[in-house]
Amino acid sequence: MIGRMSGSFLMRRFEPTKLLALYAFMCCLLLPVVSMGAGWISLIALYGVFFFMSVMFPTIFALGIKDLWSENEKGIFFIVMSIVGGAVFPPLMGLIADKFNMSVGFFAPIPLFAFILYYGLKGYKVEGAV
After folding, report:
1. Does the pTM exceed 0.90?
2. How far apart are CA 115 and CA 120, in angstroms?
């Protein structure tokens, strides 16, 4: 709740795309700290990841449907269906944790946050828009 409220406040002062990129970058930095298994520092880093994830979906959703015009319904459908990643990645993280170590599983979402970082910087722009 604190992340969502503070993120909404910050979006009034900064571009949502830049804030999304910054938050994704912070998740990429914090997940290895979580994996270090450094006690309280890793726990605080995990809460930091939750904090920075708080504004990602609504921001991605708003950017994703921004310039869809007549294709708005399809775009909304695909973005809402992308939530399935939240059902796929926890078992994948668990599989990695079972095979290697619990902390190694926290490396699995880093590529996803890296893509969100790209999306916040360049990927949100609609190519060939009228």
Report:
1. no
2. 9
